[in-house]
Amino acid sequence: MIKYDKLVCTVVNHGLGEKIAADTIQAGAGGGTILVGKGSSDSALLRFLSIADVEKDILLTLITNDQLQVVTEALVNSHHLGKYPCGYLFVIDLGGKIMNKVYDHELINIIVNRGYADDIVNAARKAGATGGTILHARGTGKPGDEKFFGITIVPEKEQVLILAKKNISENIQKAVLELECLNTPGIGIMFVTPASDFVQLGKKS
């Protein structure tokens, strides 16, 4: 059984996930998981034109410490990415032996009932975030949940992922916690994970 040390998270335009996953496999990774979410741009013009929200592929790849350089290089140098910026990658340490590592970014994870993600992204942007990625999910339910025709009603959820520089992460978290719509107890949770090795993908013209 392989013990993985790191999780490489790659966020790219929709349709590129499977292509770059093939690149990581050629580099020695054992495969990956692709999630589809909605990215929110920080461009005021795109938001004005109502085209700021685009589908994104999120590729999750488990690797060992020895595989880190070759796998990330395969992603950065992928010929599928084209010559324009189209995404980014970052790495989450899963508890390996590397200690005292300096993390310059943090991944803010917010899971809430469906309908609040846009408010969260807007508040985060005002606090300095450059955007976010929204995933749709659902709760697992528990005994005592309301039932309709004998079927347990499980609330739909939204997960908001915001990658931010460490020096503004706290401001973003504070802005989210101050949202009036999130004051109801049990409406969601927020947790933060250190992230390293941030790289912008796509070659600039």
List keywords for this structure.
38% strand, eight-stranded antiparallel β-barrel, two-stranded antiparallel sheet, alpha+beta, Alpha-Beta Plaits, 10 strands, 2 domains, 205 residues
Description of the structure:
This protein is an alpha+beta fold and 205 residues long. The chain folds into two domains: 6-101 and 195-201, Alpha-Beta Plaits (2-Layer Sandwich); 106-194, Alpha-Beta Plaits. It has helices spanning 17-26, 44-48, 68-76, 117-126, 166-177, and strands at 6-13, 33-40, 53-63, 87-93, 105-113, 132-138, 147-148, 151-152, 156-165, 188-201. The N and C termini lie far apart (43 Å).
Compact description:
The protein has 205 residues and is α+β, with helices and mostly antiparallel strands. It has helices at residues 17-26, 44-48, 68-76, 117-126, 166-177; strands at 6-13, 33-40, 53-63, 87-93, 105-113, 132-138, 147-148, 151-152, 156-165, 188-201.
